[in-house]
Amino acid sequence: MSFLILFLLIFITVVLIKNNASPSEQSLHNDIRDNYAEEIGEKLQSSSFTKEVLQALRAEGYFPDSTVGYLVDSPDKQFISIYLHNSDKLDKASKEEIQKIINRVAKNNNLNSFIVDIKETN
Predict the structure, then answer these.
(1) Widest distance between CA atoms in the chain
(2) Is the full-model pTM beyond 0.85?
(3) Distance between CA 116 and CA 95 in Å, rounded?
C-alpha cells in the first residue's frame, strides 16, 4: 500500500512539474510571442493585405466598411475583425466563405490563417 502511495505521489509531482513551466521558460515564450506579433504587425502595415481583403470581400458581394481590426498572439492565434453592413443576415455558409476568402488572401501574402470575427456595422 505504501508503495502505491509513493508511486502516486511521484506521478503527480512529475505531471505538475511538466505542466508548470519555469518563469524563465514562460518569459522566453512571451518574448517569442511578442516578437511574432510585432513582426506580423509590421508586415500588415507595410503590405496591402487589408486593402486586398476588403477588395476580395467586395468582389464576392459582401459589404465591408474600411474598419478592420487585428489581434495577433501567435501563428495559431491570429484574429481579424471585419465590420460588415447587414452582417446579421449572414448564414453559416456565408461566414465560412468569408473565412476562406480571408485565408486565401493571407496565403497569397505569406501569412498564416486568421480566425475571422464578423461584426455588424451601422
Answers:
(1) 71
(2) no
(3) 9
DSSP string, 37-71: HHHHHHHHHHSSHHHHHHHHHHHTT--EEEEEEEE
> How far is 40 from 55, CA to CA, in rounded Å?
21
Q: 91: how many CB neighbours lie within 10 A of its CB? A: 8
Map grid coordinates 461584426 to a residue.
119
Name the strands in the sheet holding 77-85, side by side, starting at the edge strand that comes first in the sequence.
64-74, 77-85, 115-121
pLDDT tens readout for residues 27-55 = 655 666 667 788 888 888 888 899 999 99
Q: Which residues pair with 116 in a beta bridge?
A: 80
Q: What's the rounded Cα separation, in Å, for the pair 60 and 118?
A: 16
The Cα 122–Cα 24 span in angstroms is 47
Nine cell digits for residue 33: 510571442
Confirm if 71 and 109 have CB atoms less than 8 A apart.
no
